[in-house]
Specification:
Two copies of one chain form a homodimer. With 335 residues, chain A is an alpha/beta fold. Chain A is 40% helix and 18% strand. The N and C termini of chain A lie far apart (74 Å). The structure holds a DNA duplex (16 and 16 nucleotides).
Chain lengths: 335, 335
Amino acid sequence: MTARSKSAATPAHRATINDVAAAAGVSRQTVTRAMNGMPGINPATKDRVLTAAKRLRYRPSRFGRGLVKPEPHTLGLVVDDLTNPYYPELASAVIGEAAKQGWNVIVAEKIHAGDREELLSEVAGQVDALLGYLNDSEGLDQLGDLPCVQFDSEPGATVGGIEQDFEPAMADLVDHLLDRGVRHPVLLDISPPGPLSRRGQCFVDLMRARGIEPPVTQVIENSMAAGAAGSQAILQDHPGTDAIMAFNDVAACGTLKTLRRAGIDVPGQIKVAGFDGLSLGTYVSPQLTTLALDVQGVAAAAVGLALGMAAGEIPRSGPRARRRVSYRLVVRESS
Amino acid sequence: MTARSKSAATPAHRATINDVAAAAGVSRQTVTRAMNGMPGINPATKDRVLTAAKRLRYRPSRFGRGLVKPEPHTLGLVVDDLTNPYYPELASAVIGEAAKQGWNVIVAEKIHAGDREELLSEVAGQVDALLGYLNDSEGLDQLGDLPCVQFDSEPGATVGGIEQDFEPAMADLVDHLLDRGVRHPVLLDISPPGPLSRRGQCFVDLMRARGIEPPVTQVIENSMAAGAAGSQAILQDHPGTDAIMAFNDVAACGTLKTLRRAGIDVPGQIKVAGFDGLSLGTYVSPQLTTLALDVQGVAAAAVGLALGMAAGEIPRSGPRARRRVSYRLVVRESS
DNA sequence: TTGTAGGCGTTATCAT
DNA sequence: ATGATAACGCCTACAA
């Protein structure tokens, strides 16, 4: 009655099945039956139990339950940064695929983690399988037997993974650009000074095979700003440029912005292509021509692998632990 | 040791601490000590245990562990759809805040759920607190004592929540528009035929207070396409329009697209304002003037509330279970 | 219809 | 340094 001493209703710790049983004057088993809607219980008893449960704010412990019904249920998804539009599209697809099978998804972002190995082992302890852009170097081996699926997996990987096959689509894009009269394309690549990214190298190789040697401008950061800055550099260093192939859609949006600022017509004067197929590419003007990854396909394959591994139906590694997905050329307005 | 009987090493079920103990010829307790790096164990023994554990691919059960060390650890975040750029920004902030406190986040999307009540109770069973855009109607009451924090909470809500205070910023925006000479603004609102959204109503009220009666165009879907279509309608229905206030940034991007297609100069001919402050608004041209929510602040407040509730330091509801965060006007290029 | 007994995998406490 | 015992919260099998 006094507002002061209401704390008596707040026990130090959560109510357990025993508390409810005691409160309702029945056995734990009867509580179980009531809570889980099982048959063979007197409606009056059931009602009494449920009332007691509600009054005590009883909520079954997922640990106690998980111990007895050890069905795997939780997937870990590790991404760089949800703020980069690529990852939410992937995450959404993964969550959707997982939901179909009744699995939950814990999403972890590397960007918020001090130590990546620590992040990995932390979420590893909470899940039944792990998905993500997981560098081999980041403690993948310390995960014991945990099923692991790597996006963007290289052929020699130690865990399962998805191989992203963009070569044919890239060839389509190169042909498309040449068809439209491009003769002086530039590659805007993301890579430390040194070797090109795989996709960048592919573009260069395909152009070379057609008798064109595209200059390359490299940026380090994966962001629209980096794309904008890189394009600025291209305008200065390569005046005759008639196409810019950006390392991804986000960077391509930066490119569009730079070109607009410079009063350059896209696609009239310079054509622009991106990579990933984000819906972001439809938000901008002109809409982005891009190499679109089948994100749904990636998610379906990855979740399928992970769940198969967790169920013991698919080995943790080796050829059976791999899938391929492909890109396709999507021509929109920027080329 | 014989490679022959390898399959014997693959028990039907996961290795437990007992298996490791037996294999290493020690007690379970010693296994625990070895696995958790606890003191008081002979290095040689420890080594033997760890070797056995690795060989058996032993991974401690989170259920067994959670039963003994019942520290809350997992947060549930319910959003509509990560494909809508608003939610990933929020999710990223929430995950970051949670990570600071050592919590994991299960992300669930309503869009992937058949039944929303089912979704809610499903993730509720896996977490220690729940965050999200949770309509009161969707079974919030069936969650027992689970700590719940509602984004976009109305004053009378039954659970804890964040109140988003945009009135002052909206007033700033209205004044800003009028300063720039706007006389015929139109509201592009998201709402079923009938009452306006809260933010829409606020815009109208503020304009009215300044002697202007803005027409309203309503759309139902929360998407760029809806924003584009709604703006198309505005162009037809209200020829003299000199400003469009969109219900959010995504819709405002649709508006920009429509206006560009129509050859209308922004902001010269029509000014455009959005709502949310997404980074998306900096991807487009012209960059979007918007009312920016302090997403970090929202996330920090929401996670703080949820963890406080889970720890029993904050009541599940009432004034102490509420926080306010505010918007601010960000003037960019579109106005 | 209801209750009793046992065990799931882990860690803490207290011996030895 | 190591082991025995008990306990965590829940569910299943069986008994009453």
